[in-house]
Design goal:
Blueprint lengths: L16 H25 L4 H30 L4 H13 L1
Helix pairs in contact: 1-2, 2-3
Amino acid sequence: MGRGRDRTRLFPKKMTEEKTDIDKRINRLVGQIEGVRRMINGKRDCAEIAQQILAAREALSKIGLMVLKEGICKTTPQNSKKVGDILERVFRI
C-alpha cells in the first residue's frame, strides 16, 4: 500500500472498528494467497488448491462487501440497513 495512495480516504476521520476488521481480513487473505502459491509450487493436489482458491475468493468477496457497505451507507445513512441487506443479497449471487 506504499504506492502513494491514501488508505484513509474510505474512513476519513479515524481508524474505525470496520477498518481494523478489514485490515485483519486483508492480511488473512494475503496469507491465503501466499499459501496457494506454496501449494502450486509444491505440486499439491489440484482439488486442495482449488478449495483454497475458492476460500480466498469468498474472503475477497466479504472484504468487498464490507467496503461497499461502509462507503454506500455513509452516503445514505437513513437507508443503511436496507442498502446493507441489498448488497449482501447481490454478493451471494
